[in-house]
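Translate sequence into structure tokens.
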Amino acid sequence: MTELTSADRLVPIHVYGRPGCMQCKQTTRKLDKHGVPYTYVDVDDDAVAGALVDIYATKNPGPKSLPLVTAGDQYWFGFRHERLARLIDIHHTSPDISSLDAVAAQYLEEVGNA
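Result follows.
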């Protein structure tokens, strides 16, 4: 079994974009620069991802230019410096709770035997 790092335990981030999209490149470069893990999905190669972008676009009253960035129940379109800065801050200030796994497992084992 692969050990999860604290970064793996954070909400998954997805960046939906397409080749040649300058705002998509700016977004992924900023995340890369700050070591924030994300999954990049090319909407031209993935029809389901393209449909997902369309669904989010119908829910969004504002601008709808790529990329679409999702992080948990939050999402936005385009390169949004302030939102990326907050995401980076959350990523770097989240506590590493992985050490609590062993404590929790021991507790559950003890309670199960009581």
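Note: The first strand starts at residue 13 and ends at 17.
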